Amino acid sequence: MFEMLGISPQALFGQLLIGLINGAFYAILSLGLSLIFGLLNIINFAHGAQYMLGAFVAWYLLAYVGIGYWPALIVTPLLVGLVGMATERLLLRRLSRLDPIYGLLLTFGLALVIEGVFRHVYGVSGQPYAPPASLSGGYRLEFMFLPKYRAWVVVVSLAVCLGTWLVIEKTKLGAYLRAATENPTLVQAFGVNVPVMVTATYGFGVALAGFAGVLAAPVYSVNPLMGSNLIIVVFAVVVIGGMGSILGSIITGFSLGLVEGLTKVFYPEASNTAVFIIMAVVLLLRPAGLFGKAA
Amino acid sequence: MSSERSQRLVLLVLLALGLVAPFVLYPVFLMKALCFALFACAYNLLIGYVGLISFGHAAFFGIAAYATGHAAKVWGLPTELALLTGTAAAAALGLVFGWLAIRRQGIYFAMVTLALAQMVFFFCVQAPFTHGEDGIQAIPRGTLLGVIDLNNQLVLYYFVYVVFVLSFLILRRTVNSPFGQILTALRENEARAVSLGYRADQYKLVAFVLSAAFSGLAGAMITIVFQLAALNSVHWHLSGEVVLMTLMGGMGTLLGPVAGALLLVAIQNYFAQVGAWSTIIQGAIFVVCVLVFRRGIVGEIEAWRQRRAAASKPRD
Q1: What does the alpha-carbon distance between residue B189 and residue B177 come to, in Å, rounded to a whole number?
Q2: Cβ contact B86:B93 at 8 Å
Q3: Is the backbone of residue B93 left (phi > 0), alpha (psi -120 to 50) or beta?
Q4: For FRET with B306, which of A101, A164, B77, B153 sits at 20 to 30 Å CA-CA?
């Protein structure tokens, strides 16, 4: 079959694996965006910068504090999430009654500041971050070589995505959250502290971005522009999946990563645009996105 | 003094300042500022008067830059036709984008335009005629109508100045026309405008194409000024910058985008030496404008004037 297509199985599976890994990052990031959008009605343009922040925090922890990968995987999202919560309390809350467009503009400005500061200090070159010893090396499969770390990225991000989905769809906390997105005043009247929930949700969404940053540090080099390159694709993923849909962002994230990988094998010139072309087609057929509710 | 008359007076003073400016300031800087001012005015037509926030306007600016550069350098068209080619390319792209994006509203509209613009960016990275990272270089400035040599800095400045003033007047006329009134009505209450029988989508689409065309004209002119069309003119950072110019100057005011563009170009010029700092400063201005300064410079001045007028009015 591979001879017929004129492609070596190694190349095909290699690209599919890269696609799956990119897809994992698309999924986690668009999940965070969807959560934030669902409750705050804000397009968090700073999401890419917060992801980059996660990678840099992990790198700092290793280089200056001597905290390795495994503790960093927990500590970093907490730290980045705290920064996020502070951002919500100090800045975003002031815009809650205004057109959501102002939230987008504010987070856009924040992204410029964060990225600018890191670029000022580190330039555009990357900082290396080695994967932990227990995940170095790989498995030699029949058709390809599978690095352990990459397999871990795919597995753990799937787990995090599904865990988040379960919490939101199946628990009481999730029910409060969903209710608050529909009618915050009513939920507040039932004695739920909605403002705290909003802060916590923003913090959690940002923590997800930070988590993705730690995961990404050993795969891509840690550099100030890693977020701004990725975030636009993630926005397209969010539009395709249907904004605010949790399951939509997970499924769309992983599948678009795979589609991108496949495009790289069969028609490399289009690999960067594939996601955007799909977005245009989806918009034509289903303006609310694949999993979105019609407005 | 009525606000109509005082506005005319302000415009006349600015017009005169524009005429003498190249003797005081560096003409290339001024031309860059005028091109961005036109870009911001075109953008303001959408955000300020229709309430549509596009996050992908660099696509129109950039595609026009490339089309103009290609037309002038490879096809050897005279400058005025090259500029028209660029503007037409932007308008055509605006028609496609607008048709696609108008299906969604508000924040969704912003996302869609951003993603569509990114498609154009990747197209420009890979298409052979754009020369990828190098861009189209050494684009001839040419002669206007075959007689006026645009290689003279001062002559070119006055050409850009005239194009800017004419475009500004057209945009001003558009906003003050019945068509402009309908656009404002759509911004304020779309459902009501629709129930009055206006076809909202068609009006929005026309406004979108108009905005794209003038953004394209701005991109086309800057190509002639710098004799270069490069990737930064299609990058999404530029889309952000034009939002910032409009926001900083005052959305929905005629002179706001001009003021915002002049200020931002001046800041960029001034901080060009310090690299990443200019991004940090831009970001900080964004944050400050959104938090405490949402009316922008011109918007704040107008609000202050209105307050003063209301205070000085004799009460009965």
Answers
A1: 18
A2: no
A3: alpha
A4: A101
Helices (H), chain B: 3-20, 27-47, 58-73, 79-101, 106-126, 153-176, 178-188, 190-195, 200-226, 236-249, 256-271, 277-292, 296-312
Mean residue pLDDT of chain A comes to: 88
Q: B124 to chain A, minimum CA–CA distance in Å?
A: 11
Average pLDDT, chain B: 87
| Closest residue by Cα to residue B252 from B303, B307, B311 | B303
* Contact between residue A173 and residue A187 where contact means Cβ atoms under 8 Å apart: no
C-alpha B252/C-alpha B176 separation (Å) is 12
Structure confidence at residue B1 as a pLDDT band (50, 70, 90): very low
Q: What are phi and psi of B20, to 5 degrees?
A: -95, -15
Contact A239, A32 (CB under 8 A): no
Q: Residue B289: its chain A contacts at CB < 8 A?
A: 105, 109
Question: What ipTM was assigned to the predicted interfaces of this complex?
Answer: 0.85
Going by pLDDT thresholds of 50, 70 and 90, the confidence category of residue A294 is: low
Query: Residue range B279-306: average pLDDT?
Result: 88
Q: Which residue of B has its CA nearest to A232?
A: B115
pLDDT tens-digit readout, A132-185: 888 877 788 777 788 888 899 999 999 999 999 999 989 998 898 888 888 888
Residues forming beta bridges with residue B143, ordered by sequence position: B149
Q: Which residues of A touch B125 (CB under 8 A)?
A: 272
pLDDT digits (tens, 9 = 90+) for B77-124: 888 899 999 999 999 999 999 998 887 777 788 888 988 898 899 889
**Chain A positions with Cβ closer than 8 Å to B:** 41, 43, 91, 94-95, 98-102, 104-106, 108-117, 119-120, 232-233, 235-236, 238-239, 243, 269, 272-273, 276-277, 279-280, 283-284, 287, 295
pLDDT above 70 (res B23): yes
How far is the first Cα of chain B from the last one, in angstroms, to the nearest whole number? Answer: 21
Write out the two tokens for B276: 């990443």
B277 contacts A120? CB cut-off 8 A:
yes
* A138: enclosing H helix or E strand: strand A138-140
Q: Are A51 and A211 in contact (CB under 8 A)?
A: no
Q: How far apart are CA B272 and CA B251, in angstroms?
A: 26
H/E stretch holding A4? helix A2-5
pLDDT exceeds cutoff 50 at A12? yes
Q: For residue A59, count CB atoms less than 10 angstroms from its CB and return exposed for 0-12, middle for 13-18, buried for 19 or more.
A: buried
- Given B107, B236, B275, which is nearest A101 (Cβ)? B107
A140: which strand partners? A145
pLDDT at B146: 72
Residue B279 with chain A: CB contacts under 8 Å: 112-113, 115-116, 119
Interatomic CA distance for residues A272 and A263, integer angstroms: 9
